[in-house]
């Protein structure tokens, strides 16, 4: 990168994207300040502590270790300089609600046997499916994810598109996977990872079959102390690179500065910089922070987007052991179409939910006191759902009953610590539209150049994080940080800085 020695950049929000962008920008020589409204960094990658219990409030799956390695390598270090990783085996357990249970082992050859046990010939088909998934991952990461391709015409790279299997471009995941596997449970096994992208098998393009390579080949890791250890690592790296992190500062307005650059109104006073990188969602910036005349879109536009699910979350400190659960357990109804309909087509609280239970204390003694387990339950639900106290109380009872019925673990009377999060939590804490937990869904019309762009509606304003490109998830937000920093650098390098303009005016 050409140096940004004289330039100041302010980052709004210390989520993964904001922290990553601040590292790249400081490394390029910019004077970087991060303004975060909460009292600690991390955003949706959060941590909740209650007594001796520690919970990850958001992400708990450390996937795509290659992306983390690439990120730290840019700064001549490696993830292990900041946190320790354990590879999980099994990757996760699936408890189907008809009583069937299956562990997905870390070794893909052992997964092959699992597939064969459900359907004769599915083991060999799994090999073909996984080869295709690996190929799409490698082409996709190399040509579309690591390279920022902000314009539609950049995506229409006929050579690359021709090299991808046609079905991955033309079909939904559900149709694509149906060409490989007959057994409905096998189809579910290869499609559940779409939930990480905030999508459903019925509205997500088959290009995202690449997630199967992530799942089965690249493996599932656990950073000791939980995913928040990654945030601590990024914050430490940022500090080492000279970034100033100011917490407890809410940005309340953004406008072009009269002397060039961008001006921010904040709860700690006014603030000007040559460039501003917003890790706050574009919808929040447009609706709440920019003057009307500078908005990119009106309310109708933002209301009509397809948002990824919100989540009903329980964070539970539990007395005693939980034998039937693994570090990651998915509890799936055998027909999950109705749950996806309740998220995307006909928003309502699910009657037969598909959900995820995380018990990190099975791997890590430090997150729960002796004789106890730390448990996080995540039920994906429709964004924008009304979630008043009574609705939440009823749903909490339903979820605890469902866990008892389908995992054999009756948590009632064993809960010693309890916290909850729901639609309103995400809307209030992170200003996400409709209280989505994840951001804009990765539908065909909200993928790649069709997501909000890198550059905002006023000069000097940039976007980073899960609602821009490449998209949702901790690894994608790290990459987003690199792209945002590169956009700032290419626009500012060689241009006079705010401080030099001010000293000339002076
Ligand atoms: C429940 C849940 C489970 C998930 N599971 C996984 C998983 O297992 N694996 C995975 O890889 N990903 C997972 N994700 C997705 C992942 O957490 C997100 O994609 C990622 O953390 C989003 O980062 P971001 O860069 O978009 O920033 P955000 O996390 O959105 O952070 C933005 C920051 O900006 C701050 N901010 C906003 N507005 C302002 C303002 N006006 N002034 C000052 N500060 C402001 C916010 O406080 C916040 O700290 C999960 C997410 C959730 C919610």
Task: Tag the structure with descriptive keywords.
five-stranded parallel β-sheet; seven-stranded mixed β-sheet; FAD/NAD(P)-binding domain; Guanine Nucleotide Dissociation Inhibitor, domain 2; binds flavin-adenine dinucleotide; alpha/beta; globular; 506 residues; single chain; 18 helices
List the strand order in the largest sheet: 7-6-15-16-17-14-18
The total count of strands amounts to 19
Shape verdict: globular
N-to-C terminal Cα separation, in Å? 31 Å
CATH topology of the largest domain: FAD/NAD(P)-binding domain
Helix content: 25-40%
Bound molecules: flavin-adenine dinucleotide
Say what oligomer this is: single chain
Return Rg in Å: 23 Å
Describe the main β-sheet briefly. Answer: 7 strands, mixed
CATH superfamily of the largest domain: FAD/NAD(P)-binding domain
CATH class of the largest domain: Alpha Beta
Which consecutive residue ranges, at least 5 long each, have pLDDT under 50? none
Helix run count: 18
Structural class: alpha/beta
What is the second-level CATH architecture of the largest domain? 3-Layer(bba) Sandwich
Q: What integer is the average pLDDT?
A: 93
Strand content: 15-25%
Structural domain count: 3
Structure overview:
The protein has 506 residues and is α/β, with parallel strands linked by helices. It folds into 3 domains: 8-83 and 226-304 and 442-505, FAD/NAD(P)-binding domain; 108-218, no CATH class; 306-430, Guanine Nucleotide Dissociation Inhibitor, domain 2 (2-Layer Sandwich), CATH 3.30.519. The protein has helices spanning 16-27, 65-74, 108-118, 122-145, 152-155, 158-163, 166-170, 173-178, 184-191, 210-218, 228-240, 282-289, 299-303, 337-344, 389-407, 423-430, 474-492, 498-505; strands at 8-12, 31-36, 47-50, 53-56, 85-87, 92-96, 101-104, 221-223, 244-247, 251-256, 262-266, 269-273, 275-278, 310-319, 328-332, 355-358, 372-381, 415-421, 461-463. Helix 4 (122-145) crosses helix 10. The longest helix is centred in the N-terminal third of the chain and has 24 residues, at 122-145. The model has no long low-confidence stretch (mean pLDDT 93). Residues 12-18, 35-38, 43-45, 58-61, 63, 196, 250-251, 279-280, 284, 311, 378, 430-431, 437-438, 465-466, 472-474, 477 line the site of flavin-adenine dinucleotide.
């Amino acid at each position: 990168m050409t140096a940004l020695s004289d330039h100041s950049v302010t980052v709004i929000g210390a989520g993964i994207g904001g922290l990553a962008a601040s590292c790249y920008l400081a490394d390029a020589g910019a004077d970087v300040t991060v303004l975060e409204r909460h009292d600690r960094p991390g955003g949706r990658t959060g941590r909740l502590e209650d007594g001796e219990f520690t919970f990850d409030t958001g992400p708990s799956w450390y996937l795509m270790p290659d992306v983390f390695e690439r990120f730290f390598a840019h700064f001549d270090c490696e993830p292990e300089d900041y946190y320790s990783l354990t590879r999980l085996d099994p990757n996760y357990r699936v408890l189907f609600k008809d009583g069937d249970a299956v562990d997905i082992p870390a070794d893909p050859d052992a997964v092959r046997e699992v597939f064969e046990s459900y359907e004769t010939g599915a083991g060999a088909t799994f090999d073909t499916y996984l080869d295709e998934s690996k190929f799409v991952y490698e082409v996709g990461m190399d040509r579309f994810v690591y390279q920022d391709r902000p314009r539609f015409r950049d995506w229409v790279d006929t050579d690359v598109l021709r090299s991808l299997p046609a079905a991955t471009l033309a079909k939904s995941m559900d149709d694509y996977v149906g060409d490989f596997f007959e057994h409905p449970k096998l189809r579910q096994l290869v499609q559940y990872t779409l939930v990480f992208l905030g999508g459903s098998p019925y509205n997500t393009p088959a290009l995202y079959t690449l997630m199967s390579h992530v799942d089965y080949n690249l493996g599932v890791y656990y950073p000791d102390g939980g995913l928040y250890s990654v945030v601590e690592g990024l914050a430490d790296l940022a500090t080492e690179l000279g970034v100033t992190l100011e917490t407890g500062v809410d940005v309340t307005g953004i406008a072009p500065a009269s002397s060039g650059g961008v001006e921010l109104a904040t709860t700690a006073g006014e603030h000007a910089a040559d460039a501003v990188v917003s890790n706050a969602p574009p919808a929040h910036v447009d609706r709440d922070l920019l003057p009307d005349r500078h908005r990119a879109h009106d309310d109708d536009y933002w209301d009509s987007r397809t948002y990824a699910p919100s989540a009903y979350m329980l964070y539970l400190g539990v007395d005693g052991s939980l034998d039937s659960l693994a570090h990651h357990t998915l509890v799936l109804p055998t027909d999950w179409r109705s749950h996806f309909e309740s998220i995307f087509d006909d928003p309502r609280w699910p009657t037969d939910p598909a959900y995820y239970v995380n018990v990190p204390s099975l791997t890590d003694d430090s997150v729960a006191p002796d004789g106890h387990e730390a448990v996080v339950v995540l039920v994906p639900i429709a964004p924008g759902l009304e979630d008043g106290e009574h609705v939440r109380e009823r749903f909490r009872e339903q979820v605890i009953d469902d866990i008892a019925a389908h995992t054999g673990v009756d948590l009632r009377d064993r809960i010693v610590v309890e916290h909850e999060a729901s639609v309103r939590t995400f809307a209030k804490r992170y200003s996400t539209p409709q209280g989505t937990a994840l951001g804009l869904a990765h539908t065909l019309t909200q993928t790649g150049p069709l997501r909000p762009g890198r550059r905002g509606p006023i000069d000097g304003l940039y976007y980073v994080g899960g609602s821009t490109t490449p998209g949702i998830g901790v690894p994608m937000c790290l990459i987003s940080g690199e792209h945002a920093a590169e956009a700032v650098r290419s626009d500012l390098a060689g241009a006079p800085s705010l401080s030099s303009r001010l000293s000339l005016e002076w």
